[in-house]
Design brief:
The complex is a heterodimer of chains A (about 200) and B (about 650).
Chain A: H1 2-65, H2 70-92, H3 97-121, H4 125-129, H5 131-166, H6 170-173, H7 191-195
Chain B: H1 5-43, H2 57-83, H3 86-92, E1 96-97, H4 105-121, E2 128-131, E3 139-142, E4 150-154, H5 155-160, H6 163-178, H7 181-215, H8 222-269, H9 272-284, H10 313-316, H11 322-329, H12 385-397, H13 400-406, H14 409-420, H15 425-438, H16 441-456, H17 462-474, H18 478-494, H19 500-517, H20 534-548, H21 552-563, H22 581-591, H23 596-610, H24 618-630
Helix pairs in contact in B: 1-2, 1-7, 1-8, 1-23, 2-7, 4-6, 4-12, 6-8, 6-9, 7-8, 9-11, 14-16, 14-17, 14-18, 15-18, 17-19, 18-19, 19-24, 20-21, 20-22, 20-23, 21-23, 23-24
Chain lengths: ~200, ~650
């Protein structure tokens, strides 16, 4: 009889310890996945910063040629500044839905403004042939490719985090462990897709 | 004294085996002790002095079963955690991965040193983790096998050591990787954890029975409560005593490995001042080698220096005392530690190349190295100073834009595609077309832009470039990697020709990246002799014979030379049609499951086969290195004039 109680005790102890270990495992995995998407955001930040640094140079070169389209140029600069502050907000907490939405909005505005600028530039072949301008657009395209690439990585990490958080058994404990809200995916429109003039073919 | 790579791999496996036996003995001892404890408490209470009732078969079974279950589960749990990869261990110690394209001078210098070491030892550059919060000077290597090895370094180590000293520390860590110490380390942690769990359970029972005993004093039979209390106390004591002895064993094993790693590092860098300097700096630094992370004690034996200080220093110390280590390396040491750190400047690429190089430098240089007489096979897993210098030279020869692209994930893919493109125009055209359909537009363009630069690279640089690009490729996400590996296969198959180098390249890349993205079982040693592997050996040697020799008779001679080194039943050379890429892949997969000694013979046979025509072209040398990699034997780059086998 006493032996039975003892064995019961040991078994209960084992069960409790295993459960604690399992809970710790879930907690650690949540933390790990969150760190991963935060790191992934840092990579996007690097690329976006480079893009934002290129834009004022581009506008400077364009100013020399485009004398009458001041609003377009100014729209680009102000959209760029908005995006810079949006990025700063988002970088402080990539898990925050409002900050990410803010960044998406600012980026969308910037892409639209850039698209209009490039459309305007079509009418200035001298500008397009300018060495500096060619180099800058080249770098800009390359940077945007890298933004898309690291954005993909960020979204993959966010999806992994959200999926784990929403599935059993993590879904039960996520809230208490401090992972209440889902992280938001970063969706940008591609500049090419918006700004591309319709292709006209002469056959 | 010095064992070669294969001997030390064998020794490491034997030591692991001995450890498992010790562990089993320890568990048996624990079972006996627990049984005695339980029996004394419950069976003899209220009985006489007779010894016979103490032997209760049912109880023995029960205690034995539960103990094995607890210890087994505890160990397996921990080892399962650790198996999740070296990165897991590094993160649990507070490390964060350093980006391969970092520009921070401290991190850049560290990565440059690691890159040189990696290329010198013929392994892909491992991920490097930085423990930002740690001011002490320390480093570790973690991971289950050389394929998933990671290196971790404290902030203090990266900032407080000169480049020479840093090189010594990294060389020490690479020695651990190449000597197979890591598997042993992880088994040690796992085993000890299992024994510790018993103590934890006992402690838990103790606490809870004290708690319930206090609350329900009136209802519990005094005997019952007392018994449970005693049980809990007894289990706790047994568990902690077990851990005590376990730590003692861990410490003794670890101390011996540390001396060995120090010696290997000295052989590697040929500059005792490097590693001795690092040890002296630790001695003269306020924070020493202390690691503050709460997980440090568990992993204390994996570090370079003594990470935690315990009261019973000599018995439990996982590392020999600093002065003893320094004296072993530098017998003429005067007892002075180094108390100041270096000034770290931004490194120029290629700046570390020593002036006495190989490119025909005049004999005015103090030490112009003659072509080494030791063959490449003998240097597998045993790189030397010459290899480090040669590696620095190789890295310096790669144009800076190409190296920068290799170090970031986006461009690294384009670089690999460019390396896989055929040298002849027509097959290349087909490959480019395939690429344009399957790859991102940006990457396709970048590949086109990189092509001229890549084609101008001397051939000996291609494999080192892959070694440098692998860390960035590890940074891809799972779906990006999926697309990348599919594109690689598309490129290899698109040109409809079997280019052996292409195949080797693709195999190296995918072999080193797969474990990072999917759970890949490491090859288990299955064969201790070549008896059953005649066909595989024949495929391998026949392919090599055809690759390097123009006509059939010459190839036959090469094949015979190679096969004579192996004791397989008479096998004949296969016709060219049988030497397909798939056959070669399968053959290598099987041969990878042989014991280290057997692999050494296989490599020697391959070397003999290639060298049969007394001419080792760069192509053949690279192919040989790729084959070594395929058999999990890291071969340092072939030095100019060095014989193959």
């Amino acid at each position: 009889m006493k032996l039975a109680i003892v064995i019961l005790f040991v078994v209960i102890a084992i069960i409790i310890l295993s459960s604690i270990g399992w809970l710790i495992g879930i907690f650690n995995q949540l933390v790990r996945l969150r760190n991963r998407f935060q790191n992934a955001f840092a990579q996007i930040e690097v690329q976006l910063k480079r893009r934002y640094d290129l834009i004022p140079n581009l506008v400077e070169v364009a100013k020399g040629y485009i004398k009458h389209e001041r609003e377009t140029l100014e729209a680009v600069i102000s959209a760029r500044n908005q995006a810079v502050s949006g990025l700063k907000q988002a970088a402080m907490d990539p898990g925050n839905a409002e900050a990410i939405q803010g960044l998406i909005g600012a980026e969308g505005a910037l892409t639209g403004a850039m698209g209009r600028l490039f459309a305007v530039m079509e009418a200035y072949p001298d500008l397009k042939a300018n060495q500096n301008m060619m180099q800058l657009s080249e770098e800009l395209t390359s940077t945007e490719n890298k933004v898309a690439f690291s954005r993909q990585a960020f979204n993959d990490a966010v999806t992994a985090y959200n999926t784990y958080k929403q599935s059993f058994p993590a879904v039960i404990f996520a809230g208490t462990f401090g992972h209440g809200r889902d992280a938001t995916l970063l969706e940008f429109e591609d500049r090419e897709a918006i700004a591309e003039p319709p292709k006209v073919s002469f056959t | 004294m010095a064992m070669d790579f294969f001997q030390s791999q064998d020794a490491a496996r034997r030591n692991t085996g001995r450890l498992v036996i010790l562990f089993i003995l320890a568990v048996i001892a624990i079972m006996v002790m627990i049984y005695l404890l339980v029996a004394v408490i419950f069976l003899s209470a209220g009985r006489g002095e007779s010894a016979a009732p103490l032997l209760h078969p049912g109880l023995m079974l029960g205690v034995g079963g539960i103990t094995i279950a607890i210890v087994g589960l505890g160990s397996l749990y921990k080892m399962g955690q650790l198996r999740a990869g070296g990165g897991f261990v590094a993160e649990s110690l507070g490390g964060a991965p350093i980006r391969p394209d970092t520009t921070d001078p401290v991190e850049r210098r560290l990565l440059n040193v690691v890159e040189e070491m990696a290329i010198a030892s013929g392994t892909p550059c491992p991920p490097v983790y930085m423990m930002q919060q740690e001011k002490g000077i320390n480093a570790f290597a973690a991971g289950f096998s050389p394929e998933d090895a990671v290196i971790g370094v404290t902030r203090g180590c990266a900032e407080q050591l000169s480049r020479d000293q840093l090189q010594g520390v990294i060389a020490h860590e690479f020695s651990h990787i190449l000597n197979g110490d890591m598997r042993l380390n992880i088994r040690l942690i796992g085993i000890l954890h299992g024994i510790l769990v018993i103590g934890i359970i006992g402690y838990f029972i103790l606490r809870s029975s004290l708690y319930t005993g206090a609350a329900y004093r009136r209802s519990s039979k005094r005997g019952g409560a007392g018994a449970i209390l005693a049980l809990g106390a007894g289990l706790a004591v047994i568990g902690f005593v077990g851990t005590f002895f376990g730590n003692w064993i861990k410490a003794a094993v670890s101390r011996q490995r540390e001396f060995l790693a120090d010696a290997s590092a000295v052989q590697f860098t040929r500059s005792p001042s490097g590693i001795a300097g690092a040890l002296k700096r630790i001695g003269g630094y306020a924070h020493g080698a202390k690691v503050e992370s709460p997980n440090a004690p568990e992993a204390s034996h994996m570090f370079f220096g003594r990470a935690i200080t315990s009261g019973l220093n000599s018995m439990f110390a996982t590392h020999p005392p600093l002065p003893v280590r320094i004296k072993r390396i530098e017998p003429s040491w005067d007892g002075e530690f180094i108390t100041t750190g270096p000034a770290i400047e931004r490194e120029e690429p290629g700046a570390q190349v020593p002036l006495a190089g190989f490119a025909g430098a005049p004999a005015a240089a103090a030490e112009s190295p003659a072509p080494p007489r030791i063959s490449a096979v003998e240097q597998i897993g045993r790189p030397t100073r010459q290899h480090i210098d040669y590696a620095a030279q190789l890295i310096g020869q790669i144009p800076e834009p190409v190296i920068n692209i290799a170090r970031e994930s986006y461009g690294a893919r384009a670089l690999i595609y460019a390396l896989l493109l055929n040298r002849e125009a027509e097959p290349r055209r087909i490959q480019m077309q395939q690429l344009s359909e399957h790859a991102d537009v940006g990457v396709y363009d970048l590949t086109g832009k990189l092509l001229p630069a890549v084609q101008q690279l001397p051939q000996g640089l291609r494999l080192p470039l892959v070694d440098l690009a692998l860390p960035a490729l590890r940074g891809l996400t799972a779906s990006q990697y999926q697309a990348f590996s599919e594109n690689v296969m598309v490129l290899v198959e698109a040109d409809e020709k079997i280019d052996l180098f292409e195949w080797a390249l693709q195999r190296i890349i995918l072999r080193h990246l797969e474990p990072h993205f999917a759970r890949v079982k490491p090859p288990v040693t299955h064969y201790y002799a070549l008896g059953r592997l005649g066909r595989q050996c024949s495929v391998l040697l026949s392919t090599l014979a055809y690759v390097g020799h123009r006509d059939r008779p010459a190839a036959q001679r090469a094949f015979s030379l190679g096969i004579s080194r192996l004791d397989v039943r008479s096998t004949s050379m296969l016709p060219p049609e049988s030497c397909t890429v798939k056959a070669l892949d399968d053959a290598l997969d099987e041969l990878n499951r042989t014991a280290p000694r057997v692999k050494q013979r296989i490599m020697t046979a391959c070397a003999a086969c290639i060298s049969a025509d007394r001419q080792v072209t760069v192509d053949e040398a690279e192919l040989f290195r790729a084959l070594c990699d395929g058999l999990s034997c890291p071969m340092p780059p072939l030095l100019p004039g060095q014989p193959l086998g």
